[in-house]
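Researcher: I'd like a candidate sequence for this fold, 209 residues long. If you have to choose between options at a position, lean toward the conservative one.
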């Protein structure tokens, strides 16, 4: 659990609207007087953004899966030490677009490295830090990929086939179902942006009290 502040992560496959919802949540929290830090993984620091470029560039199609595993963890180790942990210690609310669970899902469950190995690496990279709340924006693969295509942006992993994205969705839902720490909230991201926003606010408000 977070040291003193609050750690909220956003997870899900492509096109679930994480970025939009994070901006809305940040604005609401800031208006309510909270000190909020917004980050993304991989990225969020100068060093982690350089790693992001290597791991996500469509030019690097030849990257080995093991390299991918370690680069995501390297980017995570840096952002936790440089920003996440100090911010939590200072009592801030930290919102991250993806974190440890993305590695569990994409590398552990879909690429096949296994949850246990990835969680061991996550322990090192996060210094044993778990989110207080993880919001899964769940959307059908067809709708998610359509939204992603409409937005005109794509990275190396977006280019995987539909089967890959279906496995990602199923893996997230399985993780959320297992949820022994009661930190996951699954939200139907096919709903309107306003509806999703309200649901997120309801769940976050509980954690603020
Ligand atoms: P990004 O461009 O941030 O897009 P989005 O979050 O909107 O999908 O892409 C990050 C990609 O990296 C995404 O395809 C998931 C993948 N990823 C992993 O495979 N493992 C990880 O540990 C992280 C943080 C991301």
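Model: Candidate sequence:
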């Amino acid at each position: 659990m977070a040291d003193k502040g609050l750690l909220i992560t956003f997870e899900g496959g492509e096109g679930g609207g994480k970025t939009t919802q994070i901006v809305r949540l940040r604005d609401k929290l800031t208006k309510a007087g909270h000190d909020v830090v917004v980050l993304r993984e991989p990225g969020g620091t100068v060093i982690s953004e350089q790693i992001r470029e290597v791991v996500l560039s469509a030019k690097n199609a030849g990257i080995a899966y093991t390299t991918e595993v370690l680069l995501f963890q390297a980017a995570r180790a840096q952002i936790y030490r440089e920003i996440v942990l100090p911010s939590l210690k200072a009592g801030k609310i930290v919102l991250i677009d993806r974190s440890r669970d993305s590695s569990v899902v994409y590398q552990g469950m879909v690429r096949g490295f296994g949850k246990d190995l990835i969680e061991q690496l996550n322990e090192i990279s996060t210094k044993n830090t778990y989110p207080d709340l993880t919001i899964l924006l769940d959307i059908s693969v067809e709708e998610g990929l359509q939204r992603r295509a409409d937005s005109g942006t794509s990275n190396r992993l977006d280019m995987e086939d539909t089967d890959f994205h279906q496995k990602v969705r199923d893996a997230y839902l399985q993780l959320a179902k297992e949820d022994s720490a009661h930190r996951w909230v699954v939200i139907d991201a096919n709903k309107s942006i306003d509806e999703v926003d309200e649901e997120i606010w309801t769940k976050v408000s509980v954690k603020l009290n």
